[in-house]
Amino acid sequence: MDRSSGQPGAAFAGEARGELSVRAARALWWGSAGVVLAVLGTSVLVVGAEHGWRLPVALALVLAQVCALRWQARAPAAVLAANAVTGLAVWALLPAVTLTGALLAAQVTLCVLSATRPRRVSVRALAAMCLPAPLAFGAGGPAGLTIFLLTVVLAWTTGQWRRAQRERIRAETRRAVVEERARIAREVHDIVAHTLSVMVVQAGAADDVFTERPDQARQALRAIETGARSALGELRLLLRAFRPDEDHGGAGDGAGEQRQPGPSLARLDELADTVRATGMTVHVRREGAVDGLPAAVDLAAYRIVQEALTNTLRHAAGADEVSVRVTAEGECVKVTVVDNGRAPQGRSAMVGEGRGLVGMKERARLVGGSVRAGSRGGGGFEVAARLPVEGTE
Questions:
Q1: What is the pLDDT of residue 362?
Q2: Contact assessment for residue 289 and residue 250, using Cβ atoms and an 8 Å cutoff
Q3: H or E segment at 374?
Q4: Which residue has the higher pLDDT, 223 or 191?
Q5: I need a labelling partner for 50 at 20 to 30 A (CA). Which of 2, 65, 257, 306 fits?
Q6: What pLDDT is attached to residue 254?
Q7: Which of 311, 359, 367, 298 lies closest to 337 in space, CA to CA?
Q8: For the segment 218-228, what is each residue's pLDDT rounded down to a tens digit?
């Protein structure tokens, strides 16, 4: 479990179509534009210094390539065609630049297309980029041809490697979501089984005293009604979790058996004690009435705290103190876990690819809530969840 970034739900659809986020597309543009300007732009300035009118025309074509790179993440095929044409024009004006250098922007776009589009599309683009090979042979002989083909194939191969890497990350994230849903489903099954077992016992008790002690019978019936509402809420959660077919037993092996419900906020101090045993200082603060919460919300809040504390122990470099705050505000429960660790190099402030963080988001989503996590400005890492109470049962 790490603190990497990503979106396990909506991001799947966009990544499957090869789309990049706005931030990633902008960073890609700046990076590729810098490379083209530094390499091709410098070459054009050096080679074209004594070619009169050809130099400004070539520079204008280079700037056109740089501008076209702005849309390479959105329409790589069109940008590839435009950069190939302008690159050939630069080479025709200044043959000393070499064909490989003149088509640098097209090679960068080929890499992006290979990484973000289906393989059949990228293979066609690769074949199209190899069409100028006779020109490279005529200008530079076997060495020029070899260099040209190697750079084109390398650009395509790099894109394929990046595509495989992104697919692996998506597969791991999907698997983490499926595993978390299966675990949630098992816990919900246990809670519902416990509730139904208690209802069976109460129904039997109400039947025994219905005539002689009607007040006690009514009290048992009211308890059955409350339990039934809670069980319905849990079953709705169970259906949303898409539980795989597993044999967890019946809803109670006997009418008198009362199975223990899963972890809850009532056992938060026990959880904190296990973390304190590692030498970590843990502060637990409760605000409002956290007793009597719907079982689904109670369990989700507990598991989010558990995952956040585990995340602190494993990944918060130098952390020796963590604060847990649970606030009940009538219509929602807020959970905040803050540590004082340092952020390791390369650690993202967004939530997604880390399996534990994926689990937190999935648990919150299934009860209609949300989770945000990230590094704090003054140091440390914060996980904040908001879980609605109304409408859960």
A1: 81
A2: no
A3: strand 370-375
A4: 223
A5: 65
A6: 40
A7: 311
A8: 777 777 776 67
